[in-house]
Design goal:
Substrate binds at residues 8-9, 40-41, 74-75, 185-186. InterPro entries: Asp/Glu/hydantoin_racemase, Asp/Glu_race, Asp/Glu_racemase_AS_1, Asp/Glu_racemase_AS_2, Glu_race. The protein is of the alpha/beta class. 40% of the residues lie in helices and 17% in strands.
Length: 266
C-alpha cells in the first residue's frame, strides 16, 4: 500500500486528508503538524521554507519509506512548495487557493478569497488571480481568528458562534460575490457553521477534492496502487490508521496519546 504523508501547521490538513482517504481508503497515512508555529499564516516565507526543509530531514531520518507528500497548507504551498521539491525525490503535492475553478463557476464574475494574511498577500496568490481570474472582481479577506475557531471545533466539537459571527461581520464580505474561496485548509473544517454565518447567496469552495484526485493520479503514474493486506514498509508506521505527529502538545487540553511529539529544530 502507498504511504502518504500529509503536513500542515495544525489540523487544517485533515480537511484534505478526508478527501484523500475517500479516494484511497486502504493507503497508509502519516499526519504531521508543526503546531509549535501555528498558524503558518503569521510566519515569514523564510521561516516556512526552513520548517519544510527540516520536515524533509526528519522524514529521511525517521520515516524513510514515504511515497508522496501533501503540503496541506495554502501558505506553506505558496511560500515553499518549489524550494521543498528541490530537497527530495519524493513527489510533493501542494494546496493552493481554488481561484481558477471559482472564476470559471462564478455567475456574477465577483468572487472572494478568504485566507490568512500570508496566503492572500503573497506573490503566488496574486499570480493565480492574474492568470485565472482576470475577468472577475476578486476581493481579498484575511483571518487568523477562523484558524483558532477551526482548531477549537476540531478538538472539542464546539465552536464559539458569537466569535464566529463577529469575525465574519468585521470581514465585511461584499454582497455581490457569489463564490467564496476557502484559501486555508482549516476553514473547510468549519464550513457548516461558516456557511450559516454568511449570506445564502454565497457558496463556499475549496480545493480538497482536486488535491485528492491529483494524489491518486500521481500514485497511479508511479505504479503505486492500493493493495489491501500488504504490510507497511515504513518504520514506526502502523498500517490501517492515521499515524499522528506534532511539534507541540495540544492547546485544547485534549488527551491524545497516539500523537507522537517530534522536533523540526534539528
Amino acid at each position: 500500500m502507498p504511504h502518504i504523508l500529509v503536513f500542515d501547521s495544525g489540523i487544517g490538513g485533515t480537511s484534505v486528508l478526508e478527501h484523500i482517504r475517500a479516494v484511497l481508503p486502504h493507503a497508509d497515512y502519516s499526519y504531521v503538524m508543526d503546531n509549535v508555529l501555528l498558524p503558518y499564516g503569521l510566519q515569514s516565507q523564510q521561516t516556512i521554507q526552513q520548517r519544510l526543509a527540516a520536515l524533509i530531514k526528519w522524514l529521511d531520518r525517521e520515516l524513510h519509506a514515504v511515497d508522496i507528500i501533501v503540503i496541506a497548507c495554502n501558505t506553506a504551498s505558496t511560500y515553499a512548495l518549489e524550494s521543498t521539491r528541490q530537497l527530495t525525490s519524493i513527489p510533493i503535492v501542494g494546496v493552493v487557493p481554488a481561484i481558477k475553478p471559482a472564476a470559471i463557476a462564478s455567475r456574477s464574475r465577483h468572487i472572494g478569497l478568504l485566507a490568512t494574511p500570508a496566503t492572500s498577500g503573497n506573490t503566488y496568490t496574486q499570480q493565480l488571480i492574474t492568470q485565472f481570474a482576470n475577468e472577475c472582481q476578486v476581493d481579498l479577506y484575511q483571518s487568523t481568528k477562523l484558524v483558532e475557531l477551526a482548531e477549537q471545533f476540531y478538538w472539542s466539537g464546539e465552536i464559539d458562534r458569537e466569535l464566529l459571527v463577529a469575525e465574519i461581520k468585521q470581514l465585511e464580505l461584499a454582497a455581490g460575490l457569489d463564490l467564496l474561496v476557502l484559501g486555508c485548509t482549516h476553514f473547510p473544517i468549519i464550513a457548516k457553521p461558516l456557511s450559516e454565518a454568511i449570506s445564502e447567496s454565497m457558496t463556499l469552495i475549496d480545493s480538497g477534492a482536486a488535491i485528492a484526485r491529483r494524489v491518486a493520479s500521481l500514485l497511479a503514474q508511479g505504479g503505486m496502487t492500493e493493495e489491501p493486506g500488504m504490510a507497511a514498509q515504513c518504520i514506526g508506521v502502523e498500517p490501517g490508521v492515521t499515524n499522528w505527529y506534532a511539534t507541540a502538545t495540544q492547546a485544547h487540553n485534549i488527551d491524545r496519546p497516539e500523537i507522537k511529539l517530534i522536533s523540526l529544530d534539528r
